[in-house]
Amino acid sequence: MLYLFATFVVLLLMVTGTRGLTLLFGLGINVISVIALLVLIADGFNILVTTGIIAIVILVVAIYMNVENGNTANTAFQTSLLIMIFILLITIPLEYWASAQGMVLRIRMNLNHSL
User: Fold this and answer.
1) Closest residue by Cα to residue 87 from 39, 51, 45, 41
2) Tens digits of residue pLDDT in 58-111
3) What sign does the dihedral 7-11-13-19 (CA atoms) show?
4) CB-side exposure of 19: number of CA atoms within 13 Å?
5) What is the DSSP string of 63-112?
6) Cα(51)–Cα(34) distance, integer angstroms
7) pTM
8) How far apart are CA 65 and CA 58, in angstroms?
9) Which residues contact 24 (CB under 8 A, 6 or more apart)?
């Protein structure tokens, strides 16, 4: 796996030059953000809040690190943020109506009865 990653880095730097370092840095920040999201959710933090915060971090990294024109980056970020908020506002009622949290209690009850 290390050889595959090293090959990826070498080819990326050959094709993109010094811009490849910026791309790798952005990729590293995104990977760390997703790992932090998984750890926070596993520790019991609110899923919607943590996902929203990490999504904003990923948006900032993806947009501002790859766009050279500031006005274009601001417009793209504002548009992406509005779409993300719209999707989040749709997700909150769906999560409430789905009552997905009840499955954990049912699984625990089944495990307790089997012991």
Assistant:
1) 51
2) 999 989 888 888 899 999 999 999 999 999 888 888 877 776 655 555 656 666
3) negative
4) 6
5) HHTT---HHHHHHHHHHHHHHHHHHHHHHHHHHHHHTTTHHHHHHHHHHH
6) 9
7) 0.71
8) 10
9) 9, 12
